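User: Can you recover a sequence for this backbone? Please restate the input before giving your answer.

Assistant: Of course. Working from this structure:
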């Protein structure tokens, strides 16, 4: 039971964290006067370290969550992906509403909805 909830929580946080990191990469915030992190473009601030940590940590947690869900041989923990995708969508759209963020949100929702359906059919076939 703990493994199922752990996999669910990992998948929620991995989808939300990955969406946050990618959406922040898409929308680079304007620099405030006196900030020292404006190194690539004048007037722009980048959070490359934080975004890299969010995307790589989210990807690692995603792999670990899928392995845990596969270990318990139950598809229901993977329902954390759509929950995390909805959370990530809210975070991404709160950052920006550019075209790139809308594409990210659409792809994120489509993939995170398809994975539990595919795993359910795969486990039912076995």
């Amino acid at each position: 039971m703990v493994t199922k909830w752990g996999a669910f929580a990992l998948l929620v946080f991995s989808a939300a964290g990955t969406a946050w990191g990618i959406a922040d990469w898409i929308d680079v915030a304007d620099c405030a006067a006196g900030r020292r992190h404006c190194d690539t473009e004048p007037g722009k601030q980048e959070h490359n370290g934080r975004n890299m940590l969010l995307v790589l940590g989210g990807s690692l947690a995603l792999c670990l969550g899928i392995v845990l869900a596969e270990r318990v041989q139950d598809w229901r923990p993977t329902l954390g992906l759509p929950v995390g995708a909805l959370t990530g969508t809210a975070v991404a759209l709160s950052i920006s509403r550019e075209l790139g963020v809308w594409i990210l949100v659409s792809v994120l929702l489509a993939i995170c909805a398809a994975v539990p359906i595919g795993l359910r059919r795969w486990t039912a076939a076995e």
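That completes the design. The chain has four helices and no strands.
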